[in-house]
Amino acid sequence: MKILALETSSPYSGVSILDGETPLVSLINHKPFRHVEELPVFVERLLKATDLSLKDISFIAVSEGPGFFTGLRAGISYARALAFALDIPVLPVPTMEVIYREYRLKDMELCFRLKGNKVFYQRFENSAPKGEVKLVNISDIEPKYPLLIKEDAILPHLVGILAYEKYVKGTNKIPDLDEIEPKYVQAPDVHKPAKGKRI
């Protein structure tokens, strides 16, 4: 079972191809905010490197957020369009749980920096998320467990592994394509212009 995994929650897009839970090849772009331009290019490169075609892909795993607005929208839109063309499912997974898999302390406090002092925050206890993701000022956190702040690229193969565990080995229901939307936590940073002004 070949999985195409997309990670666009952070400023740095990442793509991976897995065979079940085994990563075959990955690419991460360390030039920020180039998700739209790079995703199709990265997918083509990885398919060529593994001697696969899109017809070999069983499903697409994608980070659903929270994260950067433009990246999430680009990743999920691309995943949905590609899945529609191939008639395969998209399996969305929570970004904070993807990040957690990189460190996997039994109990920890996890932050994913948005900008400045703003972070997405979630606590993990007994290796499971506790409570909802919140957008907070980092100075307001009073950690009970070790605190980790994630600021760099998120590993895309972990998106695929988590999707496999939740949907193939687990009992998560595969959503319809039109049900898959980014999980922003906050509203997009878009404001109406003042009355009488044009944009």
What do these coordinates show?
With 199 residues, the chain is an alpha/beta fold. It has a domain of 130 residues: ATPase, nucleotide binding domain (Nucleotidyltransferase, domain 5, 2-Layer Sandwich), CATH 3.30.420. The strands form two sheets. It has a five-stranded mixed sheet with strand order 3-2-1-4-5, sandwiched between helices. It has a four-stranded mixed sheet with strand order 8-7-6-9, covered by helices on one side. The mean pLDDT is 92.
Mean pLDDT: 92
The CATH architecture of the domain at 2-104 and 153-179 can be named as: 2-Layer Sandwich
Sequence of strands across the biggest β-sheet: 3-2-1-4-5
Order of helices and strands: EEEHEHEHEEEEH
Structural class estimated from helices and strands = alpha/beta
How does the overall form come out from the CA principal axes?
Answer: globular
The CATH class of the domain at 2-104 and 153-179 is Alpha Beta
Characterize the largest beta sheet: strand count, sense, and whether it forms a barrel. Answer: 5 strands, mixed
**Fraction of helical residues:** 25-40%
Would you count the extended β strands for me? 9
In angstroms, what is the radius of gyration? 17 Å
Task: Note the topology.
Layout: E1 2-7, E2 14-19, E3 22-28, H1 35-50, E4 57-63, H2 69-86, E5 90-93, H3 95-103, E6 108-115, E7 118-125, E8 128-137, E9 147-150, H4 156-169
Helix pairs in contact: 1-2
Question: Characteristics of this structure?
Answer:
single chain, 199 residues, alpha/beta, Nucleotidyltransferase, domain 5, four-stranded mixed beta sheet, 9 strands
